[in-house]
Amino acid sequence: MTGIYEESMFEQVKWEIGMYCAIHKCDMKQWQRGQISRVLSDTTVEVVLLDFGTKEIVNVICLRELEENLKRMRKLALECSLVDIRPAGGSEQWTATACDLISCYLTGAVATIIIQVCNENEKDATQPLPVKIFCKDEAEQSVDISEYLISKGLALRNRRVHKIDTSAVVPEEYLEVGLKQESSVLNKLTPETESIPKTSVPKQEVLFSRSEQNETKECKTKSVLKSRPDRIYKPPLVPDEETFQALISCIGDDGTIYTIPKSLEKVLNVLMADIQSNFKCLGLLEPYCWRKGEACVIRGPDTMWYRGKVTEVVGGAIRVEYLDYGYVEKIPQCHLYPTLLYAEIPPFCIPCQLYKTVPIGSFWQPDAVELLQELLMARVVEIHVMEVINCSEKCLEDNFEISFEELLLEVETPVLPPYTLPSPPLPGECFPVKVKHLVSPNEVYVCLDSVESTEGQNDTEDGRVDWNSETESLDQVLRRCNKDVDSLPFLTDFRTEMPCLAEYSDGLWYRAKLLSIKDFDPVTILIQFIDYGSTKKLPTSRLRQIPPVLMQYPAQAVKALLAGFKPPLRDTEKVRIPYCPEWSMEALWAMVDCVQGKKLFASTLTSSPEFTIFLYNNEQKLVHLKLIEMGLADLYE
C-alpha cells in the first residue's frame, strides 16, 4: 500500500459511513486499510482499521479512496466476543474495570482461540465471532479468560436458553383506537384494582427482591406486582386513521418525537389518577440488581408515580424511560420499584420520526434537537402517518414439560432448602453454651454445647440430638471439602438466604448464607457464617456452591437475646456502637470479657418470637450483673 499511496495527492471526497478508504498513519509512516464508521464533521471522520480492529479519529487529509483490488481482500482482524458470560452487576455494558483487565491480559499476548460455532448455518458475518480464549499466565498455565473474569467478580455465566422459532408466528393485530374505546380501556382498570385487598398484596403475587424466598414486605397497592415480570408492556396503540391530532410530550436526543393522541388524553389522566390513589409505596430501599429493559414504577421529581422501564444501569443511578410520556432521565435507585403495572394497558406515548428526514452526519446535533423542542414541545399537532415500523411484536412463551430432576440439571446452582436450626431446650432447663459472636451486649450467637448436659442421655428416646457427634461429623466433611474446594463451582445464584461456602480470612472455607449485595462494581456480597454468627463482605470469587451433604447439619450458631438487663438510661460513655447506638462500646467490650473463653450456662426464657435466654457463668451467676455494677447497663424489671 505504501507503493500505491506514497506519492498520491489529496482529493476532495464526500465521505459517508461504510465507505472504504486508505488511511495514513503518520506516527508509523504506514498506509492501512480502513472503513468509515462515523462522520463527525466535514473535515473529521472516525475510521475502523480493517486489519487491526482499532478505531482512529483522523482528518480527511489523511484519507484516500481505497483501490478496488484492496477492497476484495478479506480483513485480517476478526471481531470476536466471549461466549457464555455476561457483565456482572446487572448492566448490559461491560465495566471499564473489566475492559482494562482484558486489555492488560491480552494485548500483545499469543492466545488460543476456539470458535464456538457448530455449523456453517449458525455463522452470521454481521455479528462478532463467538469464541473462547485461552492464554498462558506467569506460571505458563493455560487460563480461560471467561473463567478468569468470573473469578474476579467481573462476569457471570449465561444461563442456557431455548431458541423459539418465530417464523410461523402471526403478529398480534393492532387494537383500535378512538374515543369509543375510553370506556373499554377504563373497564380494563377495574378488575385489577378491585380483585386485590387494599391493605397488602398476597405473597404469591408480590416479589420485592431477586430471591423468591425473601420475606415479602407489605405495600399498600392494589396492582399486581412482580419482581422479574415474564411479560412486557404491549406496543403503543397507533390510531388506524392516517391523520390524527396529538400532543407532543417529549423530543429525544436522537430526534425521536414522542406523541400522545388527543383521543387518549382523558384515558391517560384516569390511569395516572388511578396509579396515584392505589400505589402507595416508598420505593425499593433494599439492594436490587436492575436489568436493562426491566419494567418499573418511577417516582418522578413531582412525587408522582409513573410507569417506566430501565434503559441503562449507570453505577449507583438508573437511566429510565417514562413509558406514557417518553421522558428519559437518570434517577437514584431508591426512586424506583420493580414491577409490571397495568400490563394490559399499552403505553400511551407513540415514538415518531420525521418521514424521509435524515440529520447531517447521520445523528442529530444538539442545536437541531433544541430547535425541534422549541417548535413542538407541549403543542397539539396534526400527524400524518406515512409508515408504521415495528409497532407490534407479540410476546412469545416457550412451554416445556420437564420433571423436577431435569430442572435441577438445568440450573447452575442447585436448588437447596434453607439451613435448619436446632430445637431450643425446654424453658427452665439449664444447658451449657458457647458464645460464638456478639452483636451487642444483649444479642449474641451461641452454640449449644451439650458435653455435660447430654452425657448419659445419648441413648434416650426423647428425640434429643448429640451435638458433639454432629459437630465432629460436620468438621470432618468441611475438612474434606476444603481439600477439594477448587473442584467446587463458583456461586452463580445470589438470592437472599442462599446457602454457600465462603472463604474466611484464615484461608479456610466455612458454611455461610447470603444476606445482601453490598456493591456492584466490583460485586461484593454480605454473608453470614451460620456456624459462628459473624458476618463478612466478600467478592464473588470467594463464594462457592455448597455440597448438598453439608445441608443435613443444622446451623451451629443460634441467635439469642439475653434477658434481665437493658441499656442504661444515663450513660456518660461517648463512643457508641454504630449499628446499635443505644449501647456503648465500653459495654460491648465488658460483655466480651465476661463470655470470651468462659464456661457458660443458659436457661431458656422464651423460644418465640425470639429465642431469649438467661446467661450464667461457671459460678451460676448472671453474666450481666458485672455490666450493671459498672453502670454500663440497667436491671430490667
Automatic annotation (TrEMBL):
One GO cellular component term: nucleus
Keyword Lipid metabolism among UniProt keywords: no
Organism: Crocodylus porosus
Xref: CDD domains: Tudor_TDRD4_rpt4 (cd20417), Tudor_TDRD4_rpt5 (cd20418)
PROSITE patterns: TUDOR
Principal location listed in the UniProt entry: cytoplasm
Quaternary assembly: Interacts with MXD1, MXD3, MXD4, MXI1 and PIWIL1. Self-associates.
Name this protein carries in UniProt: RING finger protein 17
Domain Tudor: 14-73, 289-346, 493-553
InterPro entries recorded: RNF17-like_TUDOR_rpt4, RNF17-like_TUDOR_rpt5, SNase_OB-fold_sf, Tudor
Localization: Cytoplasm; Nucleus
GO molecular function: zinc ion binding
Lineage: Eukaryota, Metazoa, Chordata, Craniata, Vertebrata
Alphabetical UniProt keywords: Cytoplasm, Developmental protein, Differentiation, Metal-binding, Nucleus, Repeat, Spermatogenesis, Zinc, Zinc-finger
Function: Seems to be involved in regulation of transcriptional activity of MYC. In vitro, inhibits DNA-binding activity of Mad-MAX heterodimers. Can recruit Mad transcriptional repressors (MXD1, MXD3, MXD4 and MXI1) to the cytoplasm. May be involved in spermiogenesis.
Pfam families found in the cross-reference section: TUDOR
Keyword field contains Repeat: yes
